[in-house]
Amino acid sequence: MAKQVSLTEKFRDVFTPEMREQGERNWLVDPISTGSDHFHAELSLGDECWTAELVAAKWRLLGECDCPEGDAGRLCGHLWTLLRKAEEFGDLGWATKRSVS
Length: 101
Fold this sequence. Notes:
- β2 and β3 (48-57) form a beta hairpin.
- Strands 1-2-3-4 form a four-stranded antiparallel beta sheet.
- The chain is built from four helices and four strands, in the order ααββββαα.
- The protein is of the alpha+beta class.
- The two termini are 20 Å apart.
C-alpha cells in the first residue's frame, strides 16, 4: 500500500517558490468553514486582509482568493497559507487522494 502524501507535498510544485515564501509569512488564519472537502478562511497580516477558499470538487482542488492575484484568476501565496493550515488542522483530507489534482 502506497504511503499517502501530505497536502503540501502533493501540491507544492503548483506554487512558485515566491508564492510559497509569501504563504509562509505569519498570516493570522481565521477559519470560516472547514471540512474534508473544503477550507474557507480569512487571512490577515498587518493592514492586509483577504478571504480565500480551497475546495476539492470533481477530482480537482480549486482555489479562490479575493487578493489582486486571485481576482485575476491566478494562484497566490494566500492559497499556499490555506493549504498549510488545512494540513495542520487535518482538513481537506479528500484532496490527498491520488486522483485529485
